[in-house]
Write a structure and sequence with these properties.
single chain, Methane Monooxygenase Hydroxylase, Chain G, domain 1, Monodechloroaminopyrrolnitrin synthase PrnB family protein, Trp/Indoleamine_2_3_dOase-like, mainly alpha, about 0% strand, two-stranded antiparallel ribbon, PrnB
């Protein structure tokens, strides 16, 4: 991932290729008034000339998509398909998608990681709670990038290798940031605020006859960690379908990561096979260390998913929700299913490594 312009986050945040700073600062007020006419004029004003857009660097194109995306989501929130109102934006969005090798609209990366901080921050509402949610999501990406490097190491190693456990311990430290993020969200973002105020801005937008999801937190690809730890050979059809929907919204390097490891043997699968070959009552120390490290990571993932499910149940409860499905396109029931799968794999690792005791030969009168 070194050298990928998509990871030059400070440069992308600083970029303003559309000269949009002043106009986008007014978007929260337009949204508060549901001023569709003003939002339409704003989008039309920002649409660049195609020849000009074709000259931008990848980072400049990402920043432009970020800024156009705030207006796409705003118009759709007020019941207007943006490209019906401003059809001249279509070829620009398609060009930016090709230039960045991403979908032709903004994603969670544009909304959080590549979004400036401070007075240049792009938001739908201008509310401090929206900024807190952006920051909570933003904080997970450095750890996720690091975790995927170690996931690739785990995929190359066997559980008998001491490096297997070492890499898993590092993964545990990295994904622990996800738990910190969800705790921050619980503390600072009321479920009602997300469900009633922010969720409508993450609606699908139609582009060239296809619907594209908004910048949902579900696009944070924790599922790539799942992929190498257990999912590639221990999944179910509902989770597989969700991944197929989510994959196009991932960064190009992460889509390549999925392609390399999809259909492989997971860490849980390799550990289970190694344990099954051991005939002794106690496992070799290296295998025990690998099992303990893998169990630790799975417990952290289980904790994150349990807390995420709790938030989702509140945000999509019958007396609050405006939508049947989450902003990532999945129902709350899928979160429950993924939690169950994570728990089952953690339980499998724990049970596989329980110390096996040799049978005790009876002595004394009972032996007769």
């Amino acid at each position: 991932m070194l050298g990928d312009p998509r990871h030059t986050t400070e440069d992308i945040r600083a970029a303003d290729p559309l000269g949009a700073d002043a106009l986008l600062a007014a978007v929260p007020a337009m949204n508060a008034r549901a001023d569709v006419a003003a939002l339409t004029v704003a989008l039309r004003a920002l649409v660049p000339d195609l020849d000009r857009a074709a000259q931008w660097s990848v980072g400049g194109a990402l920043a432009a998509m970020r800024d156009l995306g705030i207006l796409l989501g705003s118009l759709k929130r007020h019941g207007v398909q943006p490209l019906h109102a401003v059809p001249e934006a279509l070829p620009v969005l398609e060009l930016l998608g090709r230039r960045t090798d991403m979908v032709p609209r903004d994603t969670v990366h544009h909304y959080t990681t590549w979004n400036p901080k401070g007075p240049r921050r792009r938001t739908y509402t201008g509310h401090p709670t929206e900024a807190r949610l952006q920051d909570a999501v933003r904080m997970v990406f450095p750890g996720l990038v690091a975790a995927l490097d170690d996931c690739a190491r785990v995929a190359r190693l066997e559980p008998y290798d001491p490096g297997f456990a070492t890499a898993l311990h590092r993964i545990a430290g990295h994904v622990g940031t996800m738990v910190d993020s969800i705790d921050l969200t619980v503390a600072q973002v009321p479920p009602e605020y997300f469900a009633l105020t922010l969720r409508p801005y993450f609606e699908e937008v139609e582009i060239a006859g296809r619907d594209y999801l908004g910048p949902a937190a579900a696009q944070v690809p924790l599922w790539l960690v799942d992929l190498t730890l257990w999912q590639c050979d221990r999944s179910d059809t509902a989770y597989d379908a969700f991944l197929a929907e989510s994959l196009p919204y991932a960064l190009p390097t992460w889509r390549a990561f999925h392609a390399r490891h999809h259909g492989g043997v997971s860490a849980v699968g390799k550990l289970s096979a190694a344990v099954s070959w051991e005939g002794a009552d106690r496992l070799p120390p290296a295998l025990t260390a690998s099992a303990e490290a893998l169990g630790r990571v799975l417990r952290i993932l289980k904790t994150f998913r349990a807390r995420h499910l709790g938030i989702a149940r509140k945000a999509y409860s019958d007396d609050v929700r405006l939508y049947e499905e989450g902003s990532g396109g999945a129902p709350v029931a899928l979160l429950r299913s993924i939690l169950d799968l994570t728990r089952e794999n953690e339980t499998m690792v724990r049970r596989a490594t329980e110390r096996r005791r040799p049978a005790v030969t009876p002595v004394g009168p009972a032996a007769a």
